[in-house]
Amino acid sequence: MAYPLQLGFQDATSPIMEELLHFHDHTLMIVFLISSLVLYIISLMLTTKLTHTSTMDAQEVETIWTILPAIILILIALPSLRILYMMDEINNPSLTVKTMGHQWYWSYEYTDYEDLNFDSYMIPTSELKPGELRLLEVDNRVVLPMEMTIRMLISSEDVLHSWAVPSLGLKTDAIPGRLNQTTLMSSRPGLYYGQCSEICGSNHSFMPIVLELVPLDYFEKWSTSML
In 81-167, at which residue ranges do the beta strands (DSSP E only) sit? Predict the structure, then answer.
């Protein structure tokens, strides 16, 4: 999760988030190089009295500054499209969980089990235990197996919500009457926090999401105890 004065992204936990971090660094380096070149040219124009007489109307220069931006855009677009297709691809999920947004809590249903569903409310500040995080802890965590492809079906029963977990690279809108889906896979166990990322009313800030990614044998024990 994020820590105070953090400048970058949260640590990547899923392969998709790792790809997003690499793409961010790739694009940021291109922007940095372009900004440095433009700043250098502006400083030269402001400090140098001499100008080349044939520079302003040279066809070669116009050709370069037309083709070069197109090449840069292609270098940005190709990896971006690759990640978009990776995020949209769902191959034989091992588990399906349906998430419904309400004002102002989340409800979860494990559709592969006959009667495994629960609501997840934020724990009030006055009821927090030592070490728990304010505005982020919930009474019922979503327990999921790690290193397995999990499909999340996301919708809403009232207004627009958004189910987002930054460290997993997830952000999917919950829209009434529409069923959106996304996939997640964690490469390591742990607790991963998120929040509703769509302004949904007065208690929008109090809809945390907590995923507990555990080994498969622990998940099977938990699911058996919940039935």
Answer: 95-102, 105-110, 117-120, 142-145, 150-156, 161-165
